[in-house]
Write the structure tokens for this entry.
Amino acid sequence: MKRMFLEKFFPASKTATIRKEIWHKGLIMMDRSMIDASSGGALMDKTPIATRNLISNMEIQQHNSSPSLEDLVKQMATSNIQFQQNVTNTI
């Protein structure tokens, strides 16, 4: 009985739209603007599959462009060594 009610008044497409709207409104304004710009318009106008693909692509791009933790540690170590050498040379 519940299933019949839900299928009649809340079909899968309506449920997906509501979930997407709740998720989109939960974002901070800057993230929402960035996602809308990346999607070439309002994210709410995209299908759930297109939305998922867009966000997956953004995540992959972010992961590939971010420096790894190992790289950050190496940069910090190099900066620290240079700082110590400068202090030693100054003294």
